[in-house]
Amino acid sequence: HVQLVESGGGSVQTGGSLRLSCSGSGITLSTYSMGWFRQAPGKEREGVARFYEPGGVSYVADPAKGRFTISQDNAENTVYLQMNSLKAEDTALYYCAATMSWGSYWGQGTQVTVS
């Protein structure tokens, strides 16, 4: 049974930091292209940061560039999203996804609220 579990969300003041974690069970994250996505109320889900391929070059979307960093610890089977200089517009439900050519596994999300 494959499961992705996000954690580390919460409420933080503008300018603060959070580190999100995505832990996998029943799945080896190092063999997937991992990414973080978010969805704010009334908006579509958008990509935040991802690895183009397993263990490859990372990509960070423009709204998060210079503030967010994606990293992966294969020994811990975990992917992280370090978020600094948070803004109110970063408020959203954050998801991680493990992607292969045939599709993706998704976690349930962790809420980030910036005020």
Rg calculated over all Cα atoms: 13 Å
The SSE order reads: EEEEEEEEEEE
The proportion of strand residues reads: over 45%
Low-confidence stretches: none
Number of distinct helices: 0
Structure summary, number of beta strands: 11
Q: Please, what is the average pLDDT?
A: 96
Structural class: mainly beta
* Main beta sheet: 7 strands, mixed
Give the end-to-end Cα distance, rounded to a whole number of Å. 37 Å
Q: Name the overall outline.
A: globular
Percentage of residues in helical conformation: under 10%
* Oligomerization state: single chain
Task: Please outline the helices and strands.
Blueprint (H helix, E strand, L loop, with lengths): L2 E5 L2 E3 L5 E8 L7 E7 L6 E6 L6 E3 L7 E6 L4 E6 L8 E9 L2 E4 L3 E5 L1
Parallel strand pairs: 2-11
Antiparallel strand pairs: 1-3, 3-8, 4-5, 4-9, 5-6, 7-8, 9-10, 9-11
Description:
The chain is an all-beta fold and 115 residues long. The chain contains no helices and eleven strands. The protein has strands spanning 3-7, 10-12, 18-25, 33-39, 46-51, 58-60, 68-73, 78-83, 92-100, 103-106, 110-114. The strands form two sheets. Strands 2, 4, 5, 6, 9, 10 and 11 form a seven-stranded mixed beta sheet that branches. A hairpin with a 6-residue loop joins strand 4 (33-39) and strand 5 (46-51). The protein is globular and about 35 Å long.
List the main descriptive attributes of the protein structure presented here.
7-stranded mixed β-sheet; mainly beta; 11 strands; 4-stranded antiparallel β-sheet; single chain
